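TL;DR need structure tokens for one chain.
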Amino acid sequence: MVFLAGVISINAGEVITGTVGAGRTIEEGYAAARACAISQLAVLASHLGSLDAVKNIVTVNGYVNAVAGFPDSPKVINGASDLFVEVFGDAGRHARTAIGVPALPRNALVEIQMTVEI
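>> reply
TL;DR here they are.
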């Protein structure tokens, strides 16, 4: 098992910031979650030498910087989940948490933490 620490949403070296429901949309959050997933895949590829050693994505914990009461965190975290299924097929399906939080490091829009079976 590989336990990956959380990564925040980054694109082209810049943190994707903001709050869903206050200036940021579900679609922007989805793209930020996908960016987190790409970062996690890069960490895995670097650590393992390639993604071929991945047997299964076991868990994904997704945190969305969102306004209080935001009900659609799962729609945002689908950006990561959908990518894992695209890359690994059924082995990319996983148990998942998708929750809204009032703040993330560096005002990031999304953070993803995961566990992978190799």
